[in-house]
Write a structure and sequence with these properties.
The complex is a heterodimer of chains A (346) and B (547). Chain A is mainly alpha-helical. Chain A has a single domain, classed as Orthogonal Bundle (ABC transporter involved in vitamin B12 uptake, BtuC), CATH 1.10.3470. Chain A is built from 15 helices and four strands. In chain A, the strands form two sheets. A two-stranded antiparallel ribbon of chain A has the order 1-4. In chain A, α13 runs parallel beside α15. Chain B has 547 residues and is α/β, with parallel strands linked by helices. Chain B has three domains: 259 residues, P-loop containing nucleotide triphosphate hydrolases (Rossmann fold), CATH 3.40.50; 193 residues, Rossmann fold (3-Layer(aba) Sandwich), CATH 3.40.50; 71 residues, no CATH class. In chain B, the strands form five sheets. Chain B has a six-stranded mixed sheet with strand order 6-7-8-3-9-10, with helices on both faces. In chain B, strands 16-19-20-13-21-22 form a six-stranded mixed sheet. In chain B, strands 2-1-4-5 form a four-stranded antiparallel sheet, with helices on one face. Classes of the chains: A mainly alpha (346), B alpha/beta (547). Chains A and B meet through α9, α10, α11 and α15 of A and α2, α12, α13, β18 and α16 of B.
Chain lengths: 346, 547
């Protein structure tokens, strides 16, 4: 509790007001904000136009777009899993491995143990929530840094995944699951795409239109303000990790449906693209906030970029380069957006 | 660097020059003159106490010396007889022979004593040069030599955060003194050590160690500027006292020629007539006597924890109760303890038909009881600068704006527009980030945030800190209006002028207990100041919690 007025803090003597930020929220600034929100969607359109002009016959095809939109559902849902912890100011690095672990649980139970696939899914989701709960309990109960704890638990989840797999790819998962995720199509796009959209809308609702989401903003920005406001900071952070576990588990189930299999090491490689999308989403729609729609658009923006580059003849490694570079740019950009907002008095 | 210049050619006529001589230092904040041309001289080896109540200009003076404030043109500063250009360059005070120990000591708690002690070497590359490896054995030996020189018993390998507060303070002072020694490096004397409220959080029984150290440092030829509210400490080690009041020097006296009462009078400008003091009835009795009263808004008994030892108080409906105390007196912990926000607080609370132990009280529960806390540290505890005005303002009552499971941002915005008008928040743009508002307007938002809950009891901690004069008046008005509607307000402030203006009753706090009350109303700032200093001096050895 800083109670002193005699420190090297802004002078507290009589008549020492803090400087008011210059008021210059003009017509332009108002438009600027709108423009800022629309920046990524515009870049998205420009990207499609660019690749389209370059190679219209490969890029501007229904098959290509069906591929882009259909192939990203796992990553899309995984990105949504990050949003509640991120809004709470917590980094969860375990969601990738958690998703992989769930996919392995589903596949092993179905293929090796012959359990009906519905049960496999339910157990898989329960495992996901349990993993999230474990994260939350450790972090909140012992007040330890979530970054390092989830890095560790993520490694543990990956280890269990490998152990369950007995170092083999598990194939032959019930086609019912693939049917309800990948094979069924609406407008030539696999049905799992629409699952992703539904989850995105739910996330958007939770973060923007519930008191929970709005309180989470305070928890993320200042634990101390949230605590003195009587918000249950610990409980909310705990819930964030549990929700992340559940949503990541859904992405694991979708993975099994999409590939009909599970193998060691999957999931973890999606962690970085998911963060790239979440941070890129920070710059759009609701700039400065982790928001579901921005993150969702970002996932497809990134996928379109990768797809276009591949059509131009880029090798596989381009994907890593692209996602990595975008994450750096997105984080820097979101920082600049935040600074500009303050100085412009938005 | 002027240090090198000085060393190369010590001007003979300056051998007897004072270590520090400042003339006509002034500082203006907007229309307010915070420091109105102050002279200050510190001789080599002299300990000068700088006294004055909050807002008297002490900290402004110190901040000018530290290079944090740019003084008004016309001031002069001479170090060891050599003129130094003003303003002092930021972080450049070392080069002119100044060292500072602020109340927070500036130590890295997770690092060891050695690492903290020699941090200055790391900055400049040190004697070994930046690329040379650090020889820890040599460093350890050097540290021991330093500690022996000042006869301070510190383990070089101890982690600073695990040391007692007194040991930490000693380390910080030794480090600053060493900086000055290095600055001198060969010259006989020079350099001034500025200690800003170093004793506030130290237990009385251990302050002696600190005084011994300061005397030893002064004996080396270092001038010491000792900024403090602590009369006993000032008496103990000061040779001379310089007293500021309203930005002017009102006294420059030899300690041996001055009585306590004279010092207090200089600080407060008010002669303390002992006959006028009415020791109030014991607070516990008072609480008991009024326990049956219908109009008790809050009653607390035996509140302890943090720097609080045993506080009992009763607040009545529609009353503004001020708590006046010096920094470290415990008053600063009281609002947080009553709100269930001070870890380890004990005692009982009766409020709104609820009665229970403070350790069971959470901020959430306190809110339900109709309590509201406006913390002193607006940026860290009061509000979130990076979120919008409307979010900050209405975040405690979001539930009201949920329509069929959906939070209506439109309704929030409309309410916030109305509130901006009611509380005169300017600019009235609720969608703007709070950070874009001035301090005064931010504070109005913080107050509005809590008033939204229609609290029965408001706990205020320094509610006008960093707020301009006009906004202060508005805040007083607002609080009086709430009071008229039956809200009880606890007003903890070190701004005694403010307490005099606003309070119905003023309690004195020292050493973690309520020591009495200020006679009145009417109150005057001078009166409160002299009472506070007198009670702080009388409260004797303080058993201040050091955890």
């Amino acid at each position: 509790m800083t109670t002193d007025t005699d420190e090297l803090t802004p002078p507290a003597g009589p008549g020492a007001p803090e400087p008011a930020a210059p008021e210059r929220r003009s017509w332009f600034a108002g438009r600027g904000r709108l423009l800022e929100s629309a920046m990524l969607p515009l870049a998205f359109v420009a990207l499609i136009a660019g690749f389209g002009i370059d190679s219209p016959h490969q890029f501007l095809t229904l098959a290509n777009f069906s591929n882009i939109f259909g192939s990203q559902a796992v990553l899309f849902v995984l990105t949504m899993a990050l949003l509640v912890p991120l809004t709470n100011g917590d980094l969860d690095l375990s969601v990738g491995a958690l998703s992989g672990l769930v996919s392995m649980v589903v596949a092993v139970l179905n293929v090796n143990d012959g359990l009906p696939v519905v049960w496999c899914i339910l157990i898989g989701l329960a495992v996901g929530v349990l993993c999230g709960v474990i994260n939350g309990v450790i972090i909140v109960r012992f007040d330890v840094n979530p970054f390092i704890i989830t890095l560790a638990t993520g490694t543990v989840f990956g280890g269990i995944q490998e152990w369950l797999s007995k170092e083999q790819t598990i194939v032959g998962v019930s086609t019912k699951l693939s049917e309800w995720t990948f094979t069924k199509e609406i407008f030539s796009i696999p049905i799992e795409f629409y699952y992703g959209i539904v989850i995105m809308l739910i996330m958007w609702y939770v973060l923007t239109f519930t008191t929970f989401g709005q309180r989470a903003l305070f928890v993320g920005q200042s634990r101390e303000v949230a605590r003195l406001s009587g918000f249950r900071v610990n409980r909310m952070r705990f819930q964030g990790f549990a929700i992340a576990g559940f949503v990541a588990a859904i992405s694991g189930v979708l993975y099994v449906g999409t590939t009909g299999s599970a193998s060691a090491g999957t999931g973890a490689n999606l962690l970085l693209p998911a963060y790239a999308a979440a941070f890129l989403g920070l710059t759009t729609i609701q700039p400065g906030r982790f928001n579901a729609i921005g993150a969702g658009i970002s996932v497809y923006f990134l996928a379109t970029g990768v797809s276009g580059l591949e059509i131009l003849g880029a090798q596989d490694y381009v994907q890593s380069l692209f996602y990595g570079v975008v994450l750096v740019i997105a984080v820097v950009l979101s920082r600049l957006v935040a600074r500009r907002r303050v100085s412009a008095g938005l | 660097m002027s240090a090198t210049v000085q060393r190369a050619a010590p001007p003979p006529d300056r051998a007897g020059a004072p270590s520090l001589e400042a003339r006509g230092l002034a500082k203006r904040f907007g229309p307010q003159l915070a420091l109105a041309g102050v002279d200050l001289t510190i001789a080599a080896g002299e300990v000068v106490a700088l006294l004055g109540e909050n807002g008297s200009g002490k900290s402004t003076l110190v901040k000018i010396l530290a290079g944090y404030h740019v003084p008004e043109p016309g001031g002069e500063l001479l170090m060891g007889g050599t003129p130094v250009p003003l303003p002092v360059p930021l972080e450049g005070f070392r080069e002119i022979g100044l060292a500072f120990v602020f109340q927070d000591l500036g130590l890295a708690h997770g690092l060891t004593v050695i690492e903290n002690l020699f941090v200055a070497h790391r900055v400049r590359g040190g004697r070994q040069g930046p690329a040379r490896p650090i020889r820890w054995r040599t460093e350890r030996r050097a540290a021991r030599t330093v500690f022996e020189r000042y006869r301070v018993d510190l383990d070089p390998d101890a982690v600073v955060g695990e040391l007692r507060p007194t040991a930490q303070a000693l380390l910080a002072i030794v480090r600053a003194a060493e900086d000055l020694r290095e600055f001198r490096a060969g010259a006989q004397s020079g350099g001034v050590l500025v200690l800003d409220e170093p004793t506030v959080f130290l237990p009385e029984s251990e302050k002696g160690f600190l005084f011994d150290l300061v005397r030893r440092v002064a004996a080396d030829g270092t001038g010491v500027l000792f900024v403090s509210h602590d009369m006993t400490a000032v008496r103990e080690i000061g040779h001379r006292a310089v007293v500021l009041r309203d930005g002017r020097k009102v006294g420059d006296v030899r300690m041996s020629d001055t009585t306590d009462a004279e010092l207090v009078q200089l600080v407060s400008g008010h002669r303390l007539r002992t006959a006028e003091r009415q020791p109030s009835s014991s607070p516990t009795q008072e609480a008991a006597a009024r326990a049956s009263d219908e109009d008790v808004a809050l009653a607390a008994e035996g509140v302890a924890g943090g720097r609080l030892r045993d506080i009992s108080l009763t607040m009545h409906v529609g009353e503004i109760v001020g708590v006046a105390g010096l920094l470290g007196s415990g008053s600063e912990d009281l609002p947080y303890a009553l709100f269930g926000a001070l870890p380890g607080a004990r005692g009982t609370l009766r409020c709104a038909g609820w009665s229970g132990e403070l350790d069971e009280l959470t901020p959430e529960r306190a809110q339900q009881l109709g309590l509201a806390l406006v913390p002193g540290d607006r940026k860290q505890q009061g509000a979130v600068p990076a979120l919008s005005v409307e979010k900050n303002m209405l975040s405690l009552v979001l539930g009201r704006y949920v329509r069929r499971g959906v939070l209506s941002h439109g309704a929030i915005h409309r309410t916030a527009v109305e509130r901006c008008d009611t509380y005169d928040v300017r600019p009235p743009k609720p969608a703007a980030d709070l950070a874009a508002l001035s301090g005064g307007n931010q504070q109005k938002v913080v107050l509005a945030r809590w008033l939204e809950l229609e609290p029965r009891v408001l706990l205020l901690h320094e509610p006008t800190q960093g707020v301009d004069v006009a906004t202060r008046a508005e805040i007083y008005e607002l609080m009086r209006a709430r009071c008229a509607r039956g809200v009880a307000i606890l007003w903890v402030s070190t701004d005694f002028d403010e307490l005099a203006k606003i309070c119905d009753r003023i309690l004195l706090c020292a050493g973690g207990v309520i020591t009495g009350s200020v006679p009145g109303p009417p109150f005057t700032r001078d009166r409160i100041t002299s009472e506070v200093y007198a009670t702080a001096a009388r409260s004797g050895p303080r058993q201040v919690g050091t955890g």
